[in-house]
Design goal:
By secondary structure, this protein is mainly α. Helix content is 62%, strand content 2%. The chain contains 21 helices and four strands. The chain has helices spanning 3-6, 21-26, 35-49, 52-61, 73-95, 107-115, 121-140, 143-149, 153-175, 202-219, 225-243, 276-281, 283-311, 324-340, 353-357, 364-383, 388-391, 393-406, 415-431, 434-451, 460-474, and strands at 101-103, 178-180, 191-193, 346-348.
């Protein structure tokens, strides 16, 4: 008998082999993650974006449609949490990426200030649904993925860095560390330190201490650094709020609610009119409204997906992410679902980088985040207890990690890619828009390649998208807005 026939079989699982059905489905081990990291990442992402449950109702609820009607705040809270839970879970199960979704900031302002005043709320939300259908059609035809694949690697890195800088600015603004100088000041300087040029108040101190704690834990490579910081600073904020006179924490107050349980009100779900808006504003204006919502959703999500995919190491050498079509299709569903629930267009959130910073690499983190949004339907007072000053330090830390991992991969010697990448990364924070950063970068890239006699190197999709962006920016001058 040969020695191999009698040798004992080693049944010890390989460290990189799947450890069960859950592991195999979400590819947790395959992507170098663990269940604990995914759970931590899911919690971190939720806390970093839970503010949307409060902020979205404020933006939509404060506007009136052409008939003077306003949306009910309690119903908006339910709609916002519901669609965030549904779409985040869907992205986790189908897309298998740690990218959470919720009502998109910027798009909800367009709906509230541009669409609603010229039609009814159901009409406005119907146009959002139509935009979602168009996104899904573009994905089904492969056009959306072709557009993303046409983006040069250097410009992709510029988009990732721009998102990193953008979320850092979001963190600084949301925490109150910097604020907008009122127009009455008659100054060309748009931002200032704190609320009056100085750092004042307990909330800002919480942010500063939270940032230092987060960075120290990251430097020491402490597992769960971001989540630990959020929890610790929330507790500190609750203690300070209980013993000190704090005028305002912003949208959320760090105190235990008297009644932690709330009853969801689904009254706004399904209140849409798909084509009613066209009867109010006309066919051309209606199409332009849908186009505006579509463009914002299309490229905001594109930039976020590319940036997070890159940071989570889910992309290949060319910057492409496997299973991208599934991710993009779920995003299209999310846009339509947001309109159908009256929560406005739902899109991928850059705050998902907080979870990626905790080590999340798969859709299982989304199961955690989506589950927490589902709980928020009944526990909204608790979900909104974490002050932004305790959660936003995560955005600064992750913004740095994104920048440090991508900036060296841009070919700075090739000005036809370096300049568009530079403009992309600068315009995102300076215009407070991912879409604007991408649009300016695309147009500049196309023009510079043509000017340098390298027009044949520009993919056809880039020419088309650059033309679309140029038209978008010229719309006000043409009287089409």
């Amino acid at each position: 008998m040969s020695p191999s026939a009698t040798a004992p079989v080693d049944k010890t699982p390989h460290p990189n082999s799947p450890q069960g059905g859950l592991d195999r489905y979400f590819k947790i081990t395959e992507r170098g993650s663990t269940l604990v990291r995914e759970v931590r990442g899911g919690f971190a992402t939720f806390f970093a974006m839970a503010y949307i449950i409060v902020l979205n109702p404020i933006i939509l609820g404060g506007a009136k449609d052409m008939y003077g009607h306003q949306l009910d705040n309690a119903q908006l809270v339910t709609a916002t949490a519901l669609v965030a839970a549904f779409t985040t879970l869907l992205m986790g199960v189908i897309g298998n990426v740690p990218i959470a979704l919720a009502a998109g900031l910027g798009v909800n302002t367009v709906v509230a200030l541009q669409l609603a005043p010229r039609m009814s709320w159901p009409d406005a939300m119907g146009m959002v649904v139509l935009a979602g259908f168009v996104v899904m059609l573009l994905v089904a035809t492969g056009l959306r993925e072709r557009v993303m694949s046409a983006v040069p690697l250097g410009l992709r890195k510029g988009i990732a860095i721009g998102i990193g800088l953008f979320i850092m600015l979001i963190g600084l603004v949301d925490s109150g560390f910097v604020s907008r100088i009122p127009d009455v000041a008659e100054t060309t300087v748009p931002l200032q330190l704190g609320g009056d040029g100085h750092l004042n108040g307990w909330p800002v101190l919480i942010f500063v201490l939270g940032t230092l704690l987060t960075l120290c834990l990251i430097v020491r490579k402490v597992p769960g650094a971001i989540l630990i910081s959020i929890v610790v600073m929330t507790i500190v904020a609750m203690i300070i709020n209980a013993i000190a006179d704090v005028p305002s924490w912003g949208l959320t107050t760090p105190e235990w609610p008297g009644n932690p349980v709330s009853t969801p009100d689904f009254g706004l779900v399904g209140q849409i009119s798909l084509f009613g808006g066209f009867g109010k504003v006309g066919l051309l204006t209606g199409i332009l409204f849908v186009f505006t919502v579509l463009l914002s959703c299309f490229f905001d999500a594109m930039g976020t997906i590319m940036g997070i995919g890159d940071e989570a190491k889910l992309t290949d050498a060319n910057g492409n992410m496997p299973g991208m079509n599934k991710v993009l299709f779920v995003d299209g569903i999310a846009v339509a679902a947001g309109g159908a629930s009256s929560a406005s267009a739902t899109t991928c959130f850059v705050e998902s980088t907080a979870g990626v910073g905790e080590g999340a690499r798969t859709g299982f983190a989304n199961i955690v985040t989506g589950g927490l949004f589902a709980l928020a339907l009944f526990l909204t007072p608790i979900a909104t207890m974490v002050p932004s000053q305790a959660a936003t330090p995560a955005l600064l830390a992750v913004g740095f990690l994104i920048l440090s991992g991508s900036i060296g991969q841009i070919d700075w010697a090739d000005f036809t890619i370096a300049i568009p990448a530079f403009l992309t990364m600068m315009m995102m924070p300076f215009t407070y828009s991912i879409t604007n950063g991408i649009g300016i970068g695309f147009i500049t890239f196309t023009v510079l390649r043509l000017a340098s006699g390298r027009g044949r190197e520009v993919p056809a999709a880039m020419y088309v998208v650059s033309a679309v962006f140029a038209f978008y920016y010229l719309m006000p001058a043409l009287g089409l807005t």
